[in-house]
Amino acid sequence: MTNIAKPIIKQIKDNREALDFFENVLLPAEDEKTQEIIANFPTVYIHNWQDSGDFEVYVGESNDIFKRTRQHYDAAVDKSKWQRKLMEKDARLFIIGHEHFNKSLTMDIENRLMHYMMSAERVKHVHNLRDNPQTSYYPVEELDEIFGRIWRGLRKENKELFPTESAIKDSAIYKASPLHKLTKEQKDARELILQKVSKALENGETRQLIFIDGEAGTGKTVLNSSTFYELYCQAEEEEKTLKCYLLVNHDEQITVYEQIAEKLGLTAKYGKVVSKPTTFINNHSEDDPVDVVFVDEAHLLLTQGKQSYHGENQLKDIIARARVTVVMFDENQILTTEQFWEAQILEHYRNQAKAAENHIVLDKQLRMQADPVTMDWIDSFTKKGQLKEIPHTVDGYQIKVFDDPEMLDLEIQKKAKEKDSALSRVLATYDWEYSQKRKPDDRLRAYWEVVIGKWHKPWNRELGAELSRKEKRKISGLAWAEQPQTINEVGSTFTIQGFDLNYAGVILGPSVKYRNGKIIFAPSESHNNKAIRNRTMSDGTKQKFGEMLIQHEVRVLMTRGVNGMYIYACDPELRAALLKAVK
């Protein structure tokens, strides 16, 4: 790839006079090759301007950059269109060319620029309607190299607007973005959902359920956001009204979805389209169902009442308020008793979807860069309680075992200082006391902490309270792992579920033990009251599910790392067995 030519990047003021001057004076002064590429090849362009300190952008591609840009200026007479802002703001225009650009390559460059721009912290709005990813073409194998050179070139022009690629890819918005290029499995699933939704809306059907099963890292969130956004794009093109909502019962994830909806202009056009399940249920009635509801992390839905939710089953209440409900489900990520699904209830919904040919299974691992042998090791540990020999890989996914929590911590700190693994954090099972409502009783400790011998570190969200108002504003909207101070904290399932890390340092607390050749889970050692308390069943009996829920907790923690996982076990027998398994 080293012979690929540098891209041509020109930045000019975004108005007619500057465009005329560039076309008639500046461009003719360039060498013939540059003139040919800008004037006669497909190009990619970025309109950008600042509003209240943040950026708004429009990304496009065209076979005739001068004609296309003048069309945008002509459209500025309509005050309702984004082009109007080009006249009102001090806008800039980037024109990007390359000797290998053809229609397909420029469309893929445009798509990725939209994806990156939406994920950039300083960009508050991307005005494009939708992406149009390409499949196979020449020279698709050059896409990554050419795009990387373009992004670095743009970053030289404006570091605020164009952050580093690693910062973009580590952002929670990037990972949940609807603009990802989908796998074939995801494309097929999205097409089926779109067809089913279209048919249900045309026929006036209600209470239709589409049920998607998929474990952690199989692309449920991207499928969810992509299909949700595509429905709004189709409705705009067909000039139809659409009532479509995206629900998730997770504080960190809902913030991410809200930011995506704002950056894509959905909030401004349609109001609050992202919410928690309880809020949606309280604000809508069965008499006036909405068109479509997407539920991400449906395993987090409540199956019994608590606080603001007074019903018995959130999924039942959501289905009653929508024509079509699309749920993404992973029963291995159920973590609390109020989320627990009795087998017959879960199968009722799954079978309802199967009967209507609305059941989809996602089974390809997309998050973790791990080979099948490594995935089998994690599955055996977290699902079967078996400790197999730890696979050793030189270049791939890393599993390392430590006999000292401080050494694990130092290794994660070291990884977090590297550009390509800045999103590395320490996590732990919920085996140490924590309370949002009160301070520790021990006056020697300012925070709730994970304490192992002489090593100790604050639980998640403890350090945030000490930040200045300016620092708090800076991290507002960022997921726990994206906040810089959290490298000095320990995360739990409550802050990390649904998110990726580059490397996860997993501390297995006293609730995870090794006895008689088997991994066991001990609820008596856990401080997660939501997992270990009694659950009232549908027949009125009370049962405990602590062992299973702690097992799920361990699986959530062990499937966070994209590139690797470091492990320390508090239980001496488990620690010894893990160290032996390395050898």
UniProtKB/TrEMBL annotation:
> Mind telling me which residue stretches traverse the membrane in this protein?
none
**Gene3D superfamilies xrefs:** P-loop containing nucleotide triphosphate hydrolases (3.40.50.300)
What SUPFAM superfamilies does its record include? P-loop containing nucleoside triphosphate hydrolases
Q: Where does the record place a coiled coil?
A: none
Top-level taxon in the UniProt lineage:
Bacteria
- Residues in Schlafen group 3-like DNA/RNA helicase domain copies: 207-571
State the name under which the record lists this protein: DUF2075 domain-containing protein
